[in-house]
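dumping this here before i forget
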Amino acid sequence: MATLKRVKKGSYHVVPHSKGWAVKKSGATRASGVYATQKEAEKNAKTSAKQLKTELFIHSKSGKIRERNSYGKDPHPPKG
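structure:
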């Protein structure tokens, strides 16, 4: 997953896994958890991202980022 190297270190990713969906921290080689559904993985990853005030990236089945949420200091806050 080349995408993981371009994002903020410490962020969480929900990615496809052979046993369902995995939650991985940026730069990690192993998943912090594997879940049967993407919804379960998202719930767990969201909790962790909120606790650490970091970003959460949710990937599609193809591995591309389909959603991004920031739970800490937003590196690109909206203007206005």
